[in-house]
Design brief:
Length: 118
């Protein structure tokens, strides 16, 4: 899914819903499913632009979690954090800032509130 056909607010909703579901659904299955979806979305933008940044950002969290917790807790929280990281990396890869600003202005927000330079 390139995101080119979806409205920017839809992309924001997807990127926000995946981490929310990761924390709402029972662990570890909920986190595993949402992490898989987020990583597949991220991988759809290639290794350099999508998957590697997500994995390289999530790995230190896994290391620190393992130092602090037992294995089941590390897996449960690590999958949730991986979902959050991968969702954000996917959103950054598919949604250029000018497109989001245009959508916010079209929705009635002022250009300065939408993040456009004054």
């Amino acid at each position: 899914m390139t995101g080119g056909r979806l409205h920017p607010f839809t992309l924001l909703a997807i990127a926000g819903a995946l981490p929310a579901l990761a924390w709402i659904l029972p662990a570890p299955a909920g986190g595993a499913c949402t992490a898989a979806v987020a990583l597949v979305l991220t991988a759809s933008h290639g290794l350099r632009r999508g998957l590697w940044p997500a994995v390289l950002t999530a790995v230190p969290f896994w290391v620190f979690l393992r130092l602090l917790h037992d294995v089941p807790t590390t897996i449960a929280i690590g999958l949730r954090i991986t979902t959050m990281v991968a969702s954000f990396v996917w959103l950054v890869a598919v949604l250029p800032p000018p497109r989001l600003v245009e959508a916010m202005v079209a929705a009635g927000r002022s250009a300065t509130a939408a993040g456009a330079p004054p």
